[in-house]
């Protein structure tokens, strides 16, 4: 069904992964050479401060199948993936992490699913070896919240290890937003999708690059990009509070008109002012979050810029 001159692109964002790249390269080559396809291995260096860009350059010089895109600074994992997807030329493009947590031995399986005719082969992490209780818990909570709140369904444990047919990649390139949550975008994009499960091993070397702050930003990007529920939430709370205050006012009037009680209402008033004040601030905060995102998007800044490019194919693929 597929000719031998079909090209498979493998896109790998790397950020300070100097101790992983060589090992990763060898493993990918080992599994890809067993298949009948040509391949290109694209490392997207996300502004690393260690030797990563030099190693990428060395590999690109030594092996014509390797390309290096060196970004001018750290733009984040999702933008690095986007940059790789803009430059990939393959009939199918596989995105994966460079720390061995997305096992290269699964490459033939992903490709065989594509040969069966699936255009998106999504991998699902059923477990991560050595993941802290906190990371697993927050990750699960995030997916539950995201799916409850938004109209796109993101698979729990869905990772950025996936294969996309070139038709899907072309559609992906038409997404214009800055704040990117690629899992949501792919889920919303449609086409023939399938899933395969895997257990993510530990990192080969180094530490996770995702701090709690980065995870939180990532989660907020995901939720605000695909859900208006938080905005509605502020509205519903406002309605509930509005009704409650009518009831409260009636109660106050009743006491004033029909009883002889004095005015010891201080506690009630203070409590209701505090409650309403808090809720108003929360509502304004939610609106502010969305307005901030509108502001970021309307500036229409470039998503990233490159400092250097190594390897054979230099023309860009963007549009
Ligand atoms: N990464 C990146 N830019 C960043 C953070 C991470 O390109 O700002 C890369 C990193 O080098 C790795 C992949 O994204 O190849 C996944 O990152 P990491 O392993 O730190 O995430 P985790 O597996 O802990 O979720
Ligand atoms: Mg990792």
Automatic annotation (TrEMBL):
<dbReference type="GO" id="GO:0016757">
    <property type="term" value="F:glycosyltransferase activity"/>
</dbReference>
<feature type="domain" description="Glycosyltransferase 2-like">
    <location>
        <begin position="9"/>
        <end position="169"/>
    </location>
</feature>
<keyword id="KW-0328">Glycosyltransferase</keyword>
<keyword id="KW-0472">Membrane</keyword>
<dbReference type="InterPro" id="IPR001173">
    <property type="entry name" value="Glyco_trans_2-like"/>
</dbReference>
<keyword id="KW-0808">Transferase</keyword>
<dbReference type="Pfam" id="PF00535">
    <property type="entry name" value="Glycos_transf_2"/>
</dbReference>
<dbReference type="InterPro" id="IPR029044">
    <property type="entry name" value="Nucleotide-diphossugar_trans"/>
</dbReference>
<dbReference type="InterPro" id="IPR050256">
    <property type="entry name" value="Glycosyltransferase_2"/>
</dbReference>
<keyword id="KW-0812">Transmembrane</keyword>
<feature type="transmembrane region" description="Helical">
    <location>
        <begin position="233"/>
        <end position="254"/>
    </location>
</feature>
<keyword id="KW-1133">Transmembrane helix</keyword>
<feature type="transmembrane region" description="Helical">
    <location>
        <begin position="266"/>
        <end position="291"/>
    </location>
</feature>
<protein>
    <submittedName>
        <fullName>Glycosyltransferase</fullName>
        <ecNumber>2.4.-.-</ecNumber>
    </submittedName>
</protein>
């Amino acid at each position: 069904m597929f000719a031998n001159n079909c090209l498979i692109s493998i896109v790998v964002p790397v950020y300070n992964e100097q101790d992983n790249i060589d090992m990763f390269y060898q493993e990918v080559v080992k599994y890809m050479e067993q298949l009948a396809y040509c391949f290109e291995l694209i490392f997207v260096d996300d502004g690393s401060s260690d030797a990563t860009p030099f190693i990428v350059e060395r590999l690109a010089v030594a092996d014509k199948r390797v390309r290096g895109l060196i970004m001018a600074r750290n733009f984040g994992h999702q933008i690095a993936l986007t940059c790789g997807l803009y430059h990939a030329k393959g009939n199918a493009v596989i995105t994966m992490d460079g720390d061995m947590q997305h096992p290269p031995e699964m490459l033939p399986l992903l490709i065989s699913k594509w040969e069966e005719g699936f255009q998106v082969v999504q991998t699902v992490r059923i477990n991560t070896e050595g993941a802290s209780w906190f990371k697993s818990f927050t990750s699960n909570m995030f997916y539950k919240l995201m799916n409850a709140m938004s109209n796109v369904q993101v698979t729990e444990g869905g990772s950025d290890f996936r294969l996309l047919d070139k038709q899907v990649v072309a559609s992906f390139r038409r997404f214009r937003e800055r704040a990117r949550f690629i899992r949501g975008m792919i889920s919303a994009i449609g086409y023939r999708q399938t899933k395969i499960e895997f257990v993510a091993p530990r990192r080969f070397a180094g530490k996770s690059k995702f701090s709690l702050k980065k995870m939180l930003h990532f989660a907020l990007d995901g939720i605000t990009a695909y859900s208006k529920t938080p905005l509605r939430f502020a509205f519903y709370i406002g309605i509930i509070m509005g009704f409650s205050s009518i009831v409260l006012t009636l109660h106050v009037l009743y006491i004033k008109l029909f009883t002889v009680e004095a005015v010891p209402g201080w506690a009630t008033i203070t409590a209701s002012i505090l409650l309403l004040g808090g809720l108003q601030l929360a509502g304004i905060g939610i609106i502010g979050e969305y307005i901030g995102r509108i502001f970021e998007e309307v500036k229409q800044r470039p998503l990233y810029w490159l400092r250097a490019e190594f390897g054979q194919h230099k023309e860009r693929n963007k549009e």
